[in-house]
Design goal:
Order of helices and strands: HHEEHEEEEEEEEEEHHHHEEH
CATH architecture of the largest domain: Distorted Sandwich
Low-confidence stretches: 1-27, 354-374
Radius of gyration: 39 Å
Largest sheet: 8 strands, mixed
Number of strands: 14
Helix content: 25-40%
Number of domains: 2
Strand content: 25-35%
Mean pLDDT: 81
Number of helices: 8
Distance between the termini: 86 Å
Shape: rod-shaped
């Protein structure tokens, strides 16, 4: 019986032992023990002293950046507004304890209660202040490893290259700097063997800008300043500007050619030419609103509109002289130059071309101009010829300018990308 009793009771004993061990493992420290450990660690603790037993050593602050969103890329004021937080980690030799003795692995301290590196946004625009705030808690493990996650809206400077607007890429940097300490005292650097120093945290896609790539680097060892820089390679999404800006500009260039189609007697020729010219001026002002005041870089799209305005001025000048010639008295003789313009117009139209064929083995076509010297050319013919020649000349200019600007923008877009 005793043997059988031991056989039946041994499984129960094993279960009881396991339960006791589990209770012992899950039973953490009490609130009093937490308070005692915190007060013990903070006794004689100074937030003004670097957390090193040997003050000749260097505090290494490892950092990474988590991007939550790109709020705005302000091209006019050349600034980048982002939301995200830094992950900063360092060893505090004054905040270490025996985990086995206290049965506590992690403690949390407010930012104002322990030492933190005076990290600031170096290329900020608005305020120059330390990261974080009094309500932030820092995590501290038993080996003295401190982790700080200050979450902020960052406004940093960003040089905007407007050359290929709106098919442009921008590289913006966000630089964090230890303001008071030299690199020998506090070395702000990147996490070792971190393949992605810029990561995302609940990232919200921007409707105008997309992220092509990210990068980061710490200041070289030879420099005295301790800082780390995170780089965002951004690419503009051009669909909005294609639909609302580029397409109307191209269509206006086509519509302007109709100035030379409208008859001179219609009375709307000059007003139509002026309306198109002023429309280009309006679009130039719209583009200027989206671009910074910059003499070093010039937008190719702005140059294209200026060229269009120059062509528009030429159109107005030609139309003005054409209308004056159209209303000249018929008694005035048509000069040699204007007769030449009419000849060119009739040659291009082939309305007065005489065709003669000679058969000598093969059929050849010989085209000769009719001798207009004996024909009648009036000022109405001159006006019509000016319209015809100007239409095709401006069409060639329009196609050439459009081809050059599109090829340059797309070529630059592919080169940057």
């Amino acid at each position: 019986m005793p043997g059988h009793f031991l056989i039946f009771t041994s499984p129960i004993a094993v279960i009881l032992c396991c339960c006791a061990a589990l209770i012992d493992i899950t039973s953490g420290a009490s609130v009093e023990e937490y308070k005692l450990l915190q007060s013990t660690l903070l006794t004689n603790y100074s937030t003004s002293v670097r957390p090193l037993l040997d003050q000749d050593d260097t505090v290494f602050v490892y950092s990474g950046f988590y991007l939550a969103g790109i709020n705005e890329v302000d091209a006019v004021n050349q600034r980048l507004i982002t939301t995200g937080f830094l992950e900063l980690s360092w060893d505090d030799e004054f905040l270490q304890w025996d985990e086995d003795e206290f049965d506590i692995q992690t403690l949390y301290f407010k930012q104002k209660d322990i030492w933190t590196p005076d990290v600031v946004l170096k290329n900020g625009i608005t305020t120059f202040e330390e990261l974080g705030g009094e309500f932030y808690y820092l995590q501290v493990t038993s080996d003295g490893r401190v982790t700080w996650l200050p979450f902020q809206v960052l406004e940093s400077k960003c040089f905007i290259d407007i050359t290929y607007f709106p098919f442009d890429d921008q590289k913006c940097s966000i630089t964090f700097h230890s303001w008071s300490f030299s690199k020998d005292e506090v070395n702000v650097t990147l996490f070792v063997d971190d393949p992605s120093p810029v990561d995302s945290y609940n990232y919200v896609e921007n409707s105008v800008w997309g992220i092509v790539s990210t990068d980061a680097f710490a200041s070289p060892e030879i420099e005295a300043e301790s800082e780390v820089t995170f780089i965002l390679h951004l690419r503009r999404k051009p669909l909005y500007f294609i639909v609302n800006l580029i397409s109307p500009i191209v269509l206006l260039g086509v519509v302007r050619l109709l100035v030379f189609v409208i008859p001179a007697d219609a009375g709307e020729k000059m007003s139509f030419a002026m309306a198109v010219f002023l429309s280009f001026a309006v679009f130039l002002s719209i583009i200027s609103m989206h671009l910074p005041t910059n003499s070093e870089k010039t937008s190719l799209l702005g140059v294209y509109i200026v060229v269009q305005m120059i062509i528009g001025v030429g159109t107005i000048v030609i139309s003005s002289f054409q209308l004056r010639l159209h209303h000249r008295k018929s008694e005035r003789k048509v000069g040699v130059f204007f007769r030449g313009v009419v000849k060119v117009e009739r040659f291009l139209r082939c309305t007065t071309c005489n065709e003669s064929r000679k058969v000598s083995g093969e059929k050849n076509v010989e085209v000769s101009l009719h001798d207009d010297d004996n024909g009648i050319i009036n000022w109405t013919d001159v006006s019509s010829a000016i319209d015809f020649v100007s239409f095709w000349t401006m069409l060639v200019f329009e196609i050439t300018a459009m081809t050059i600007i599109i090829a340059t923008l797309i070529g630059g877009y592919d080169l940057i990308g």
